[in-house]
Amino acid sequence: MMIKSDICMLMLVVMTMVEGRRYPRKNRNKDKEQAQRDEAEPVCELEVACRGEKNIPITLPIRGAKGPQGKNGQKGEPGDAGIPGIPGREGRSTPPIIRVAFFVGLQENQGPVKENSDLLFDKVITNVGNVFNPDTGRFTATHNGTYQFNVVVAAQGRQRAAVNLVRNGEMIATVWAESIPYWASASNTAILKLKGGDQVWLVLLSRAPYIHGYMYSTFSGHLLFPDKK
Ligand SMILES: *[C@@H]1O[C@H](CO)[C@@H](O)[C@H](O)[C@H]1NC(C)=O
């Protein structure tokens, strides 16, 4: 980062870094302040103020914020370091992490169905970002980006089970499992570009209408990466 000013005499660089709680609490007022700070995301602030007559170029190496604290208390990876004296280019800094991931399954067998029917899942194991709605069986994209979906379908007892993976009602992929005569599992993976608000779900087909539960049949997905801004 480089800042030139015709009138520079005094430089003031203030860096403030507010981090998550580190020390045991001492009193109630401090507890409150600390709690409010804890609510907010960690914040870094940089202020440069110049006054005076001389033309003073200022060069600062800039480091990205630390990533979020890991589960066991380890620090996240530091952001990409800028090159001293060279203005930061777009895309150099670490993009914010968007947390979108779900994993659901069938505990009960479903079907047979007479018509193609939206498949509902009775077991939600993971739903980061609350992106999967168990009432509709649908995933809703939170951001424009590229997402991955995995579908596993099982059939048992000479049954057939097949689903379509659909995006906003449009058929994208099919998974077909047929039990002759024992166990059958089939899977498919789709990588889809979605816009925020787009929906993805599974439709159980009447041609192969009986899908096995007991967590043999599952549906999962996550954001691979958001679109470039
Ligand atoms: C998402 O994509 C749509 C269509 O390409 C575009 O109109 C919209 O501005 C994008 N939204 C964001 C937040 O980038």
From TrEMBL:
InterPro entries tied to this protein: C1q_dom, Collagen/C1q_domain, Tumour_necrosis_fac-like_dom
SMART domains to which the protein is assigned, alphabetical: C1Q
Pfam families: C1q
Residue intervals passing through the bilayer: none
Gene3D superfamilies xref list: 2.60.120.40
Record region (Disordered): 60-91
Segments forming domain C1q: 95-229
Localisation per UniProt entry: Secreted
Keyword terms: Collagen, Secreted, Signal
A single Gene Ontology CC term: extracellular region
Cited PROSITE patterns: C1Q (PS50871)
Stretch forming the signal peptide: 1-20
Protein name from the UniProt record: C1q-like protein
The species this protein was found in: Testudinalia testudinalis
